Amino acid sequence: MTTSTIAVIDLDLPGATISRHVYGHFAEHLGRCIYGGFWVGEDSPVANVRGIRSDVVEALRAISIPNLRWPGGCFADDYHWRDGVGPRESRPRMVNSHWGDVVEDNAFGTHEFMDLCELLGADPYVSGNLGSGSVAEMSAWVEYLTRADDSPMAALRRANGREQPWRVPFWGLGNEAWGCGGNMRAEQFASLARQYATYCRNHGGNLLYRIAAGANEADLHWTETLMRSFDDLAADRAGSAGPFQAVSLHYYTMAGSWSDKGDATGFSTDQWYVTMARARRMEELLTRHSTVMDRYDPHRKVGLVVDEWGTWWNVEKGTNPGFLYQQNTLRDALVAAVHFDAFHRHAERVVMANIAQTVNVLQAMILTDPDSGALVLTPTYHVFAMNTGHHDAAALAVHLRGVETRAVGATELPLVSASASVKGDTALVSLSNLDAETDRTLVLDLRGRDVVGHTARVLTATALDAHNTPEQLDAVAPADHAGVHPHPRGLEVELPAHSYVTVALELR
Ligand code: AHR
């Protein structure tokens, strides 16, 4: 059976700009994300540039990776940056107590991370240690990275082989301060964030965009406390956005509970729908946190940064439970698509989002085989690839009519998700059919500008848990979509069951 839905889009009413940074990434010293994922070392048989995997860099450049958050996550609040600079052989070791209780040798530190960002063409987002560090330590790290003259930290950087300062646009003040980042109360953290932010200085022309560790899921009190905390400072400094420029938010999608999150593969159709309903919750969270922020910042100068999001499943059998290695299927791809629709709709407030995590951890773009080193692009990667047209484009409102819903527990899950954007003479429409079983058609009612051409791509597979492996690299890969036809209102698009479709429009 096929059913029909209508999406009305006014192509001549561009909204807020969708920051390319909502397509941002996160890489933590966790499992095989850094070690074995990004970093193999100079002597590795895997092709590398100064120890950084060339194939990983190439794959991420192909999706125009805009930024990379590092070194955590929970790890960030245990990390002391001085341990990761200077000759590699003499760097001290530490225990990575959050993730597998393994010994970290600090081979990948500040210089390696900045080198990685330069190879990627991505903006660095450094997550500073507020949980177990000191104000002076964080302040010195900023100076080390960004100062040009002969200050003590700039001199140390030079002695370690880097003459010029780096540009560091994004700076995190702690991570999950309500949990692994110090088990703090909101009021306590808000005071500390003000203090730390003050000493994270703008050196020379480097302007830091400071991001205060934000709320877990629906903790509106946390967001409200942070917003209130710098309200008085903002009032004192006309034109300034206060000590920090953004607050963050973390939300992970699971099909089960925290103790049994559900498996990445072999899940039931019911679990598919539960997952989609949980992914849709991002929309509600953005609305609720934005509403709180609007009260204190009606002109939307303070950003909301979703610096951790994605699926979190039970680890793959036989892998270290502390390494958070999971398979990535068509279901993960649809979860990503639903999140991007929400980020696009909230473009006015959501300035950045970072999927957790880029390689070999949680909802990864890339999986690398620990034995052969083979690289696999996941279905999630392909959604990022199909959406590059949304980077820095103007959001377009998509008014959906006739969308069927399905009851999932107490919520009604709309079975179609959509968003759109326009940049010059091209528009991109993203369409997800979240229905596990039913194909549907959707009519794009396109108004305001003439559509003179179109191309379309589709991402789907027979099985809901289809995924790519070293043996089958393209089991889930985008293909040209022939199912787009002229319609009196615009275009009619076939949406196979459990599929993601993008339609690129040429406009006049
Ligand atoms: O991404 C894995 C972990 O999830 C991060 O370290 C932490 O911030 C969050 O709880």
Structural class call reads alpha/beta
Based on CA atoms alone, the radius of gyration comes out at 23 Å
Strand order of the largest sheet: 2-5-8-9-10-11-12-13
Oligomer: single chain
Ligand catalogue: alpha-L-arabinofuranose
CATH architecture of the largest domain: Alpha-Beta Barrel
**Averaged pLDDT, please?**
96
Count of helix runs: 10
Are there runs of 5+ residues with pLDDT below 50, and where? 235-240
Give the CA-based shape. Answer: globular
**CATH structural fold name of the largest domain:** TIM Barrel
Describe this structure in words.
The chain has helices at residues 54-62, 110-120, 135-146, 152-159, 186-199, 220-229, 231-236, 269-296, 330-345, 379-386, and strands at 3-10, 24-26, 48-49, 52-53, 67-70, 94-96, 102-104, 123-128, 170-173, 209-216, 246-253, 303-311, 350-356, 366-368, 375-377, 394-396, 398-401, 405-408, 411-414, 416-423, 426-433, 440-447, 451-459, 479-480, 484-487, 490-495, 499-507. With 508 residues, the chain is α/β, with parallel strands linked by helices. It is built from 10 helices and 27 strands. The strands form 7 sheets. Strands 2-5-8-9-10-11-12-13 form an 8-stranded parallel barrel, surrounded by 5 helices. It has a 6-stranded antiparallel beta sheet with strand order 16-20-21-27-23-24, covered by helices on one side. Strands 17-1-22-26-25 form a 5-stranded mixed beta sheet, with no helix packed on it. Residues 235-240 have low confidence and may be disordered. 24% of the residues lie in helices and 28% in strands. The longest helix has 28 residues, at 269-296. Helix 3 (135-146) packs across helix 4 (152-159). The protein is globular and about 70 Å long. The chain folds into 2 domains: 3-10 and 396-507, Immunoglobulin-like, CATH 2.60.40; 23-235 and 303-388, TIM Barrel (Alpha-Beta Barrel). Bound molecules: alpha-L-arabinofuranose (AHR). Alpha-L-arabinofuranose binds next to loops.
